[in-house]
Amino acid sequence: MSSSSSSSSSSSSNTLSPVVQVKPLGFPWETMDPFLFCVYHDDAYPAANAQMGPQAALAGRALGQDFSRKDGWSMYHGSVVPGFPAHPHRGFETVTIVRKGLIDHSDSLGATARFGRGDVQWLTAGQGVVHSEMFPLLDASAPNPLELFQIWLNLPRQSKMAKPHFTMFWSQDIPRLSATDAEGRRTEVAVIAGRLADAEAPPMTPPPDSWAAQADADVAIWTIRMAPGARWTLPAAAGQGTRRQLYFFKGRTVRIGGQAVTAPAAIELRADAAAELLNSGSEEAEFLLLQGKPIAEPVVQYGPFVMNTEAEIAQTLRDYQQTQFGGWPFADDAPVHGRDPLRFARHPDGREERPPQLAIRP
Q1: How much of the chain is helix, strand and coil, in % rounded to 5?
Q2: What confidence tens digit (pLDDT) does each residue in 97-145 have?
Q3: Mean pLDDT, rounded, for 324-329
Q4: Is this model's pTM higher than 0.85 or not?
Q5: What's residue 284's pLDDT?
Q6: Quick one: which of 42, 55, 111 has its CA closest to 81?
Q7: Residue 84: exposure state from Cβ atoms within 10 A (0-12, 13-18, ≥19)
Q8: Which residues contact residue 176 at a Cβ distance below 8 angstroms, ignoring those fewer than 6 apart?
Q9: Would you tell me how many other CB atoms lie within 10 Å of the CB of residue 280?
Q10: Angle made by CA atoms 174, 175, 177, in degrees to the nearest 5
Q11: Within the chain, where are the H helices?
């Protein structure tokens, strides 16, 4: 990665630069402690068929393992409806930010949800949960675009075996900042985790066992959209020892603290310094910010299980074999929740949430 090494040497020679290093974006995106994983899905699904899958031939796709992006979309592990049928997790959290389209969630606790269009689901897997994330296509007469991030946030040792828990952050409740620079150009920030001065709503409350719930963890998950030519200053992080990564995933060029960066790129920033962002390109620029104080514990990962030791991974495999983390209470491993586009969340205790909007059109 020659661009990474050149950026590192450049930034080390200029101690005033907020840029530590720049790397190309891969798949999945490289993350730093306390984050484990970040993936960006941007699928241009066609019109829907009668089974809520794509109205297109699936020949030539490796169904069950299709990450091909053939024709601009993938089936992933789905065979009829795109998505990720039932699979287990232990020892970390998933934060799923859906910008376009819908996700149908089901889990081994008996919970279900349909969310999208700016909604976020924050799932603490803790001691173990099985869930599915399917992408139903509802519009039979027009394309069904899907755009989302899924972020894996590690859990510290004392929370690895916490009780599973899921929280919904509905789009209209998420704090947002809309800033206009001296030339009238706008920057919009959505604050999924953390605190941003002048945001239009108070910070969201992370799940109780999350690293983000620790007062000094300084976790932030923000999305940033800048108009062409817009200028905005990313404030310094509040905590000590915080690390910060900025993912430049849409747009052309940006200047960060005066340093030119071309998309797509992962930019490690000094968290203790403010960083002026200037969208120097001719189209909108979009970023995802991940920051937090490192947990700084050993990480041993075996697929969807993340623990501190090999012995704990071995125990996890035995536990899953014996208990299936509570079993799967649904008729198939890829459930979808019908053709009604209403978003909802039904919790294991039967409590139901619906966002104030009565409906969204697919």
Answers
A1: 10, 40, 50
A2: 999 999 999 999 999 999 999 999 999 999 999 999 999 999 999 999 9
A3: 95
A4: yes
A5: 98
A6: 55
A7: middle
A8: 188, 189, 190, 191, 199, 200, 201
A9: 18
A10: 135
A11: 2-13, 310-323
Amino acid type, 119? D
C-alpha to C-alpha distance for 46 and 141, rounded to whole angstroms: 9
Q: Give the span between the Cα atoms of 79 and 100, in whole angstroms.
A: 21
Tens digit of each residue's pLDDT (9 = 90 or more) over 166-225:
999 999 999 999 999 999 999 999 999 999 998 988 999 999 999 999 989 999 999 999
Distance CA 17, CA 270 (A): 8
Residue with tokens 């430049």: 248
Distances (CA, A) of 26 to 29, 145, 199, 265, 300: 5, 22, 31, 9, 22
Return the amino acid letter for 331: A
Phi-psi category of 216—alpha, beta or left, where left has phi over 0 and alpha has psi -120 to 50?
alpha
